[in-house]
Amino acid sequence: MDALDLGARLAQLLATGRRVSTYKLATLDALLQHCLEHPVGEDDGLRVSIPELAERVVEAYWPQVRVYADLGVLRQNEQSRPGTTTLLERIAQARRAAEGTRNASVAQWRTNDPGTWARTRRSVAHTLAQQPLFALQKTGGRSPGTAFLYDDSWLHKKVSVVDLDAHDWSIDLFPGVPTALARVSPLLQPVLQQWWVDDVQRLNAAALEAPDLHGFLFGADRAAVARLAPGLREFQDGRCFYCAKPSGASVHVDHVLPWSRVPLDGVRNLVAVDPRCNGDKLATLPAVEHVRDLLARPEADLQALAAPLRWPVDTARVRSAATGLYRAAAAGAPLWRGPGVYDLFDGRLVW
Q1: Quick check: helix, strand or coil at residue 248?
Q2: pTM for this entry
Q3: Which terminus of the chain has fewer CB atoms gathered within 10 Å of its CB, N or C?
């Protein structure tokens, strides 16, 4: 399957269809991330757990349900039925409860309150099946179109838990679709984010500054991960992970695999870095050597570092995401090595 053709079809579908909420965008972004983290053969299909997609949707909305200036929690859907709780409201309630137990990040909450996490995940998964997954491939009107990502013939607005149980709470991507989605993700994710910003501006009918809003919606929660800075700095013997120079007075915590591509907050993906390196790298993919060094760090040491804060390590997810991201990267793509220095990707993985 041609990745660019698939990406163009998705973009056209979302651009021409009416979006009454940001849920479709969040679900498609979650699907792109899932395919990156679960690389398969060129012509293979892939069974995708809807609760796993729900997990990624919760992770995406977690920073977005904070109060924004004097507007409160920003609206992300046109309307809700009286007496119902929207998906975003459920996530906002979960975040407030988690913060009350000192679980600032979704990664901490997932690890430290597994019961509440499992219930929220299941509830969000049910909503995804009834709304965005049912409508994601449809144009509306009298000719809704043909499913081209997965079989959605059993999905509908009132799909029940019994229906979901019968389908193992999963959708099956058609052969070739998983690899095509992974390959097109570098092009499609920035487009999705810009539409997301546009939709939030429209739904809130407020003069929101796009650059500030984009950072609010999609930036990593620096305050939460900053709590790991002292431990990471000590673990790295007071040196920047990238340039190996002694750390100065200010130390940043960076997501080696870019947060904008795969929002992984596990300690395996976090390093202490010099502000200059962090400011220059931004959201680019790092050199393969940096990823190799990242994954080579001893698991026991990372577990010991994370334990006092009850923070997850997530080695399996980070390793899988690294493999998926670089398999999807084109040969010759620039990879960040250091300030102003880039490698050209030769297509080889050395981890």
Answers
A1: coil
A2: 0.88
A3: C
